[in-house]
């Protein structure tokens, strides 16, 4: 719940920041701030530099590229071309992609989870259909970027559980962020724009986005994937679109058609179906010990 609230709100924050700053400036600031917090926390928790073998370092870095360089690049392009509410809805499609990916890695799912994710997939089809309506705010180009972002995050989620279980949630999140953002930084540093004309609140928004969405939410997400599994954790993320839709309407004054709200309702129904509590689910979701 912490993760979906922060990520739902972060979509609205990013859309607002794009009015004042370009995507490269926003992401560079977010990565530097989040990395500067996460890596010292991980080193302190581990009592020093991690003694991983080369394969583990490469795995953490590779998964980090998926969840940071690729996801952030695709998502910022998508949200620039889409209303914040729509971007939040498409980001909630991650569980549709996690299910088949998880099956490839031997994860098991109940019929209820499959039915819930299938219902969410129906919502995705409805959203894609809206791109064909003249004058709609939902564009095919924006949807394409957002779906690429969802795919990158789905892969990050699937690999997350194995790696965070092996090296620890905090070290995984910290070093996957620090290493995974290096390709992006190499490209984006030359495009950073700092101007006195930009209000101080915009830079504060970058800092809040980094600390909330890239620190607190990443830790909660990694821990949730460990306890609940990649598919169940991802299905919870379908709550984030509802938060994004409500906040975008209240703060950005986006007036999305009823059809978009109906699609969000389909997604949320799928999430509720897939996560309906069972006895085994309650045991799996018991509060974990600290990493």
UniProtKB/TrEMBL annotation:
Transmembrane segments: 28-45, 57-80, 86-106, 113-131, 137-156, 168-189, 201-222, 234-252, 258-276
Compartmental location: Membrane
Keywords: Membrane, Transmembrane, Transmembrane helix
Membrane topology field: Multi-pass membrane protein
Family, per entry: Belongs to the EamA transporter family.
A single Gene Ontology CC term: membrane
Domain of life: Bacteria
Listed name of the protein: EamA/RhaT family transporter
């Amino acid at each position: 719940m912490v993760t979906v609230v922060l990520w739902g709100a972060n979509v609205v924050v990013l859309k607002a920041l794009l009015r004042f700053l370009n995507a490269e400036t926003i992401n560079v600031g977010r990565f530097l701030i989040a990395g500067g917090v996460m890596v010292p926390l991980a080193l302190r928790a581990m009592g020093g530099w991690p003694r991983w073998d080369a394969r583990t370092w490469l795995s953490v870095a590779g998964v980090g590229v998926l969840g940071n360089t690729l996801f952030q690049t695709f998502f910022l392009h998508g949200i620039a071309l889409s209303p914040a509410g729509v971007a939040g809805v498409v980001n909630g499609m991650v569980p549709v992609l996690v299910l088949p990916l998880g099956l490839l890695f031997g994860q098991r799912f109940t019929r209820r989870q499959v039915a819930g994710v299938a219902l969410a997939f129906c919502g995705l089809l409805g959203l894609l259909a809206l791109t064909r309506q003249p004058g709609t705010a939902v564009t095919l180009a924006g949807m394409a970027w957002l779906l690429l972002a969802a795919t990158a995050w789905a892969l990050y989620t699937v690999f997350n559980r194995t790696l965070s279980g092996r090296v620890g949630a905090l070290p995984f999140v910290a070093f996957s962020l620090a290493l995974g953002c290096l390709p992006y930084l190499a490209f984006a540093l030359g495009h950073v724009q700092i101007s006195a004309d930009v209000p101080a609140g915009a830079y504060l928004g970058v800092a809040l986005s980094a600390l909330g969405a890239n620190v607190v939410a990443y830790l909660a997400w990694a821990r949730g994937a460990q306890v609940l599994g990649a598919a169940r954790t991802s299905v919870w993320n379908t709550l984030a679109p509802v938060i994004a839709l409500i906040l975008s309407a209240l703060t950005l004054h986006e007036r999305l058609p009823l059809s978009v709200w109906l699609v969000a309702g389909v997604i949320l129904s799928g999430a509720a179906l897939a996560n309906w509590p069972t006895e085994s689910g309650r045991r799996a979701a018991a509060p974990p010990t600290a990493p």
